[in-house]
C-alpha cells in the first residue's frame, strides 16, 4: 500500500513541476535567426508576426518567465542571470537597427527590453490607429499593380493589428475592392457576391488572374528531318505571378543526366536489347496539384452564363511554377506501382527487375527511353503506360533531345550534326573556313585582354548553344569551358576564341560519339590538371574522362575552385574529382544490376599524386587537401580503386585541360571515341577498339605510341576488387 501511495505522490509532483529549461551552454549555441524567420522592423509593420515567433521560441526552451514579471532579486540565481543574458542577446539579434537604437540600455534585463519593444509599437495606440486606419480606408490602387496594391493593404492591416485594432477579413476584402482602378471595377460584384465569401488572399489571386490572364501559344512540331509533324495549340498561364509559399511550394523537377543516358545505352548495346523512344502528349496536364490554384477561363471557351467565374484547378497547366514537379511525381508514383524502382544515383532512372526480366526507363520531362530484356516485356510496359497516360510509341530510338541516335552492329552512334549546322547558321558562320583544332596551344586568355565586345548577348547565346553540343562532342569541352569563363564581360580576344570553335565545328559537323558493346563492364578513368593555368586567378584547370569498357560515358573540363600551391596538389584534386564520378558510376551500375567485377583504374601522369593515393603517412605539406586524400585513399583501401601512373604522351585527359597541337589532338580525339559518323554507319570500318587500351584507335593507324600504350595499360589491369570477390 505504501508503495502505491508513493508512486501516486511522485506522479502528482511530476505533473505540477514545470519542465526545466535547458542549460545555458545549450542556449548560447542557439542561432535565433534560424528560429525567428522575421526581423522586427518599424518600416514593415510585422510586430505581431515577430512576437508570435519569438514567444514560440521562448516556450520551446521554457524561458517565458524572463519576459514576464521578473522574480525577486534574491531568487535570481547565477544560472537564471546567464539565461536572461541569452534572451537579451536573442532580442537584440532579431530586431532591426531602427528599433535597437530606441530600446538599447546597458545591463537591461530581458523583461525590460521586451517591455520597451512592446511600447514602441503600442504607445500612442489611439493616435497611431487614427493615422493607420485613415490611410487604410483611403488608399487607392492608382498605377500600382495588384501585387503592389495588395502588399500595401496587408502592411497597413498588420500595423493596425499590432496595436490591438485588427481589421476583419471581410473588411479587408471590401476595402480591397473599393480602391481598385477602373480596369478591375467590373470584377467587384463577382468577388463581393461570392458564397462562401472570398478571403483576402483568394480575392488577390482572383485579381491577379484578371491582371495577367493566360494566353494561347501556337507552335509547329517538326520531325527529325525538319518536315512538319503537327500543329500544336496550348493554353499557358502566367506562372510568374505566383507567390512562393502561397501559390506553390517545391518546383524542382529532376531530369536524367547525360552520363546516365550514355551508360544505359552502352549496357543496352552489350546486351543487344531492343530500345524504344516514347513521348507523352501534354505531360504537364497529368500532374495533380496540392495547392489551391485559380485560373481564368481560357479565351474562346468562356461559360456564357458565368463569364466572370474562374476555374479551380485540380491538375497542373503549362506555365505553373509547380507543373514540372507535379508531373514528375505523378509519373514516378505510377511507374513505381508497376514494379519499377527509382534510382538513388539518378532519380530520373527507373529499373524493373523480376526474375530474368529487366527493363530500364529514362525520363527527361516528357521524353522517355525504354529498353527491356525482351520485346514482349517492352510491349507490356508500353501498354501499361498508355493505359495511364497519352503515350506515343515513336519506335526504335533514333532522335532524343536533339541528338541523333544510330544503332550499328557494335553499338550506338550519337551525333548532333543538324544542331551543329543550325548553330553555325545562327552565328553567321555557315560558310567559314575550317580549322584543325578548337583551341590553340597558346596560354589561356585573361579576362581583361583586348577591348570589350559590343554585342555581348550574341556571345552568350552562341556560347550557351555550344554547351549543349558538348553532350556528344567531348573534343570541344575544354574550348567551350574557356569561352564560358568570360560570358559576363566578353572581349574581342574571347570572340576570336569562340569563332575558332565554330570554325572547328564547320569541319567536323558530322562527327559524333561512338558507344560500343563491351564484354566486361570495367571502369577506367584518366585525370589531368593544368597547374595555375588561369592568368587572372592562378587556379588550375582539371579534366577527366571515364570509359565503361571501350565507350566514353563521362567527362569534365572545369576550373578548380581554389588555388593549388603545387602541381601535385592540382593533379590530386583532379584525381579526387574523377574518383567521385567513378564512385557515382559504380553506384549507378549497381542499381542497373551490372556488377563491376574489377577495381576502377584511374590514370594520372603525376607521380606524386600516385604516391599520395597509397602512402598512409600524412605530411604537413598536404594537410590543406586532406579531405581529398582521405576520400581517395578510402576507395583504394576498399579495393574499389587503383591510381596508376601513365605517360603524358598517352594521357587522354590532356584534351580537357589545355590546347594541343593538331597531331596530338587528332590522336587523342580518336581515343575518345569521336569520329565521322558517316563512316560508322556506311558499313565501313570507322575504327577498331582495343579492350586493353581502353580507347578507340583508327583501324588504319599503326603508331608505336599505340603499341606502347597497349602494353603499358595491359600490365596494369586489375582482376579483382578484393579477396573473395
From TrEMBL:
<feature type="compositionally biased region" description="Basic and acidic residues">
    <location>
        <begin position="698"/>
        <end position="709"/>
    </location>
</feature>
<feature type="domain" description="Reverse transcriptase Ty1/copia-type">
    <location>
        <begin position="213"/>
        <end position="439"/>
    </location>
</feature>
<dbReference type="InterPro" id="IPR013103">
    <property type="entry name" value="RVT_2"/>
</dbReference>
<dbReference type="InterPro" id="IPR043502">
    <property type="entry name" value="DNA/RNA_pol_sf"/>
</dbReference>
<dbReference type="Pfam" id="PF07727">
    <property type="entry name" value="RVT_2"/>
</dbReference>
<protein>
    <submittedName>
        <fullName>Gag-pol polyprotein</fullName>
    </submittedName>
</protein>
<dbReference type="Pfam" id="PF14223">
    <property type="entry name" value="Retrotran_gag_2"/>
</dbReference>
<feature type="region of interest" description="Disordered">
    <location>
        <begin position="1"/>
        <end position="24"/>
    </location>
</feature>
<feature type="region of interest" description="Disordered">
    <location>
        <begin position="696"/>
        <end position="725"/>
    </location>
</feature>
<feature type="compositionally biased region" description="Low complexity">
    <location>
        <begin position="1"/>
        <end position="13"/>
    </location>
</feature>
Amino acid at each position: 500500500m505504501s508503495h502505491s501511495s508513493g508512486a501516486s505522490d511522485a506522479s502528482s509532483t511530476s505533473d505540477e513541476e514545470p519542465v526545466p529549461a535547458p542549460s545555458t551552454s545549450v542556449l548560447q549555441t542557439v542561432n535565433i535567426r534560424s528560429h525567428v524567420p522575421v526581423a522586427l522592423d518599424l518600416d514593415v509593420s510585422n510586430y505581431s508576426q515577430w512576437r508570435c515567433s519569438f514567444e514560440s521560441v521562448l516556450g520551446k526552451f521554457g524561458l517565458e518567465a524572463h519576459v514576464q514579471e521578473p522574480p525577486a532579486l534574491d531568487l535570481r540565481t547565477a544560472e537564471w542571470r546567464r539565461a536572461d543574458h541569452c534572451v537579451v542577446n536573442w532580442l537584440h539579434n532579431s530586431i532591426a537597427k531602427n528599433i535597437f537604437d530606441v530600446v538599447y540600455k546597458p545591463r537591461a534585463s530581458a523583461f525590460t527590453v521586451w517591455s520597451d519593444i512592446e511600447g514602441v509599437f503600442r504607445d500612442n495606440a489611439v493616435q497611431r490607429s487614427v493615422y493607420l486606419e485613415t490611410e487604410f480606408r483611403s488608399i487607392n490602387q492608382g498605377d500600382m499593380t495588384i501585387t503592389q496594391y495588395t502588399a500595401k493593404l496587408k502592411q497597413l492591416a498588420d500595423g493596425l493589428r499590432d496595436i490591438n485594432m485588427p481589421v476583419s477579413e471581410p473588411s479587408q476584402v471590401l476595402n480591397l475592392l473599393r480602391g481598385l482602378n477602373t480596369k478591375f471595377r467590373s470584377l467587384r460584384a463577382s468577388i463581393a457576391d461570392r458564397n462562401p465569401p472570398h478571403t483576402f488572399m483568394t480575392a488577390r489571386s482572383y485579381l491577379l488572374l484578371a491582371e495577367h490572364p493566360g494566353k494561347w501559344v501556337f507552335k509547329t512540331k517538326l520531325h527529325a528531318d525538319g518536315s512538319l509533324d503537327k500543329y500544336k495549340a496550348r493554353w499557358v498561364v502566367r506562372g510568374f505571378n505566383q507567390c512562393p509559399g502561397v501559390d506553390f511550394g517545391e518546383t524542382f523537377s529532376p531530369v536524367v543526366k547525360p552520363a546516365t543516358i550514355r551508360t544505359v545505352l552502352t549496357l543496352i548495346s552489350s546486351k543487344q536489347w531492343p530500345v524504344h523512344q516514347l513521348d507523352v502528349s501534354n505531360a504537364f496536364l497529368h500532374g495533380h496539384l496540392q495547392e489551391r490554384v485559380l485560373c481564368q477561363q481560357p479565351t474562346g471557351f468562356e461559360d456564357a452564363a458565368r463569364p466572370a467565374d474562374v476555374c479551380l484547378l485540380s491538375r497542373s497547366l503549362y506555365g505553373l511554377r509547380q507543373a514540372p514537379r507535379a508531373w514528375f511525381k505523378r509519373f514516378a508514383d505510377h511507374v513505381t506501382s508497376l514494379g519499377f524502382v527509382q534510382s538513388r544515383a539518378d532519380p530520373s532512372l527507373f529499373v524493373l527487375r523480376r526474375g530474368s526480366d529487366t527493363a530500364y526507363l529514362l525520363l527527361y520531362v516528357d521524353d522517355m527511353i525504354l529498353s527491356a530484356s525482351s520485346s514482349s516485356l517492352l510491349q507490356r510496359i508500353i501498354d501499361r503506360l498508355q493505359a495511364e497516360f497519352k503515350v506515343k510509341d515513336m519506335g526504335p530510338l533514333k532522335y532524343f533531345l536533339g541528338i541523333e541516335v544510330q544503332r550499328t552492329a557494335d553499338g550506338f552512334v550519337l551525333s548532333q550534326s543538324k544542331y551543329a549546322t543550325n548553330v553555325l547558321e545562327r552565328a553567321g558562320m555557315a560558310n567559314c573556313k575550317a580549322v584543325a583544332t578548337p583551341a590553340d596551344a597558346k596560354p589561356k586568355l585573361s579576362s581583361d585582354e583586348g577591348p570589350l565586345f559590343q554585342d555581348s548577348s550574341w556571345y552568350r547565346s552562341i556560347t550557351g548553344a555550344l554547351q549543349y553540343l558538348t553532350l556528344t562532342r567531348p573534343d570541344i569541352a575544354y574550348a567551350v569551358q574557356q569561352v564560358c569563363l568570360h560570358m559576363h564581360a566578353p572581349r574581342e580576344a574571347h570572340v576570336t576564341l569562340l569563332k575558332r570553335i565554330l570554325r572547328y565545328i564547320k569541319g567536323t559537323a558530322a562527327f559524333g560519339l561512338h558507344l560500343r558493346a563491351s564484354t566486361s563492364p570495367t571502369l577506367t578513368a584518366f585525370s589531368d590538371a593544368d597547374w595555375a593555368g588561369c592568368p587572372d586567378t592562378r587556379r588550375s584547370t582539371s579534366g577527366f574522362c571515364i570509359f565503361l569498357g571501350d565507350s566514353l560515358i563521362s567527362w569534365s573540363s572545369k576550373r578548380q575552385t581554389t588555388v593549388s600551391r603545387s602541381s601535385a596538389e592540382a593533379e590530386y584534386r583532379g584525381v579526387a574529382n574523377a574518383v567521385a564520378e567513378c564512385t557515382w558510376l559504380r553506384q549507378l551500375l549497381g542499381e542497373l544490376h551490372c556488377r563491376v567485377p574489377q577495381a576502377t583504374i584511374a590514370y594520372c601522369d603525376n607521380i606524386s599524386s600516385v604516391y599520395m593515393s597509397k602512402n598512409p603517412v600524412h605530411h604537413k605539406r598536404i594537410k590543406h587537401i586532406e579531405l581529398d586524400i582521405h576520400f581517395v585513399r578510402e576507395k583504394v583501401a576498399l579495393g574499389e580503386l587503383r591510381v596508376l601512373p601513365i605517360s603524358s604522351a598517352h594521357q587522354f585527359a590532356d584534351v580537357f585541360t589545355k590546347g594541343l597541337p593538331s597531331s596530338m589532338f587528332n590522336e587523342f580525339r580518336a581515343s575518345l571515341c569521336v569520329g565521322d559518323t558517316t563512316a560508322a554507319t556506311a558499313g565501313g570500318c570507322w575504327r577498331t577498339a582495343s579492350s586493353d587500351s581502353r580507347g578507340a584507335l583508327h583501324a588504319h593507324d599503326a603508331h608505336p605510341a599505340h603499341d606502347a600504350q597497349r602494353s603499358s595499360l595491359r600490365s596494369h589491369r586489375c582482376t579483382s576488387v578484393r579477396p573473395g570477390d
